Amino acid sequence: MSAALAAVEGSVNTIGFGLAAIGPGVGIGIIFGNGVQAIARQPEATAVIRQNMLLGFAVVEALALMGFVLAFALGG
């Protein structure tokens, strides 16, 4: 019985990380989608917009990496 519980616990960690990866994926899509629209509307501000896009990408990706690390750290 305990072996079955250990198998379920491992699966729950994997499922939890998979669900946690959805948020950053959506966030990255929104960041780059809106960034491309902003560049299309104001090409002269490309450098500033690109810099802000990459900063936002780094923050969102850091959240995904923290979730990945926590899935292993708390998984036992």
TrEMBL record:
Membrane spanning residue stretches = 12-32, 53-74
How does the UniProt record describe the way this protein sits in the membrane? Multi-pass membrane protein
Q: Name one GO molecular function term.
A: lipid binding
> Positions of the site: Reversibly protonated during proton transport?
E61
What InterPro entries does UniProt report for this protein, alphabetically?
ATP_synth_csu_bac/chlpt, ATP_synth_F0_csu, ATP_synth_F0_csu_DDCD_BS, ATP_synth_F0_csu_sf, ATPase_proteolipid_c-like_dom, F/V-ATP_Csub_sf
Asked if the record carries the keyword Calcium, the reply is no
Pfam families per UniProt = ATP-synt_C (PF00137)
Q: What is its main location?
A: membrane
Gene3D superfamilies according to UniProt? F1F0 ATP synthase subunit C
**Which keywords label this protein?**
ATP synthesis, Cell membrane, CF(0), Hydrogen ion transport, Hydrolase, Ion transport, Lipid-binding, Membrane, Transmembrane, Transmembrane helix, Transport
- What top-level branch of life does the organism fall under? Bacteria
PROSITE patterns for this protein: ATPASE_C
What is this protein's record name?
Answer: ATP synthase subunit c
From the Swiss-Prot or TrEMBL record, state where the protein is found: Cell membrane
Per the UniProt record, the source organism is Streptomyces triticirhizae
Q: What cellular component terms from Gene Ontology apply here? A: plasma membrane; proton-transporting ATP synthase complex; proton-transporting two-sector ATPase complex, proton-transporting domain
What family does this belong to? Answer: Belongs to the ATPase C chain family.
Which residues belong to any copy of the V-ATPase proteolipid subunit C-like domain? Answer: 15-73
- State its role: F(1)F(0) ATP synthase produces ATP from ADP in the presence of a proton or sodium gradient. F-type ATPases consist of two structural domains, F(1) containing the extramembraneous catalytic core and F(0) containing the membrane proton channel, linked together by a central stalk and a peripheral stalk. During catalysis, ATP synthesis in the catalytic domain of F(1) is coupled via a rotary mechanism of the central stalk subunits to proton translocation.
